[in-house]
Amino acid sequence: MALVTKAIKGTKDVLPKDVHKNQYIEATALDIAEKFGYKEIRTPMFEHTELFQRGVGDTTDVVQKEMYTFDDKAGRSITLRPEGTAGAVRSYLENGLCNEALPQKVCYIGPCFRYEKPQAGRLREFHQFGVECFGTSSPLADAELIALGKSIFDTLQVKELSLEINSIGCPVCRAEYHKALKEYFSDRRDELCSTCQDRLERNPMRILDCKSPVCSEIAKHAPVVTDYLCEECREHFDSVQNYLKAMNIDYKINPKIVRGLDYYTKTVFEFISNSIGAQGTVCGGGRYDGLVDELGGQKTPSLGFAMGLERLMLLLEAQNAPFPAANTPDLFVAALGDKATLKAAEIVSDMRAEGFTALMDLNQRSLRAQMKYADKLGAKFNIVIGDNEVDTKIAKLKNMTTGEETEIALDTFVSGFYNISLSDQLADLEINGEEFDFSSLFGLNKEENEHGRND
Length: 455
Hints:
This protein is elongated. With 455 residues, it is an alpha+beta fold. The strands form three sheets. An eight-stranded mixed β-sheet has the order 1-5-6-11-10-9-7-8, sandwiched between helices. Strand 3 and strand 4 form a beta hairpin. The longest helix is centred in the N-terminal third of the chain and has 17 residues.
């Protein structure tokens, strides 16, 4: 039978057997961000198109070529978000976070959309983890932001990752740099792509970020922005480097980094890997001191970064980085007959109420089929209940790792299961005289662990 339709090109399903890897990456990023003082924010997946035209920049590839834009039923121009910063700034202003104590630190995880040629590590629907820090001009904030990103990569055990930094200056010194770029590129204007010919007049720095091989080749010998920094921007960049050195963070200066979005000022940076081919940038960001006032707020120095989660996953898998094992059920109950099925449903319900993962066969198949199903699920313990077990109120609990069977009373099943499984876990643990948090074994909170279970 032929499928009615397939997934749209540039999108990807994440299947149950793999989703725990995504959850691990996301949880790690959120946890580390919180340790740096960042709280999660959730913004809509689509915004008024003007937000991205004003925020991202109408001379960027993102706005000119890659956005998913459409008119809604009221005739308003709507765009699926191509990146997270503009929406976070809009929310910061609209919801009055600008009136709270500064700096305001937010983080987010969510899908973004860009119409690009799909390839490994680059999808049309992709997911980003991002952080934004509003209300500080200190170079210490730049260094701390980079340290946050590095901490995530270190925790995930990413190897052979290099940090490249640059400063693209402020509007004052960038004006001088733009003059130098115009003079350089004007001599080869006819060789530039049509998009870059337009950029030459409006924003020549965008030519440095063009993906055209011809434009990229011409740009190789263009003037570098660090030669045009004003005194303030130079001092800021020097301070960022001093803080990075104090934090023992290795870096190299790459004067060609300009990032693909117009809102950046001063510090820009990228974490780059050689393990995933051409799509080597796994995290990029920097400072954007003019974006908040561009979108209607008061001038607010700010900064942030984003990392593509699909690209990060590709990198981790290429490096055989360790992932936690997927969770498996604590218990599978096989039932034979109507009475047994009722008792199984009762036990499964009680187990779930106490925080365990307990399953039974919803199709009420033969015992052999149920055991085969349980084996595929990877259940840690199995129990078979038939009429005899219901009558005697006793069954045998089988440890599927060791094969050991233990009699257990059905009327006090949850407490019995807890004691048996705890005993089995302790047999596999080597505790070197240190206090062990037993609650971690079964998802209990510490108060429950200290005062005993209710059953």
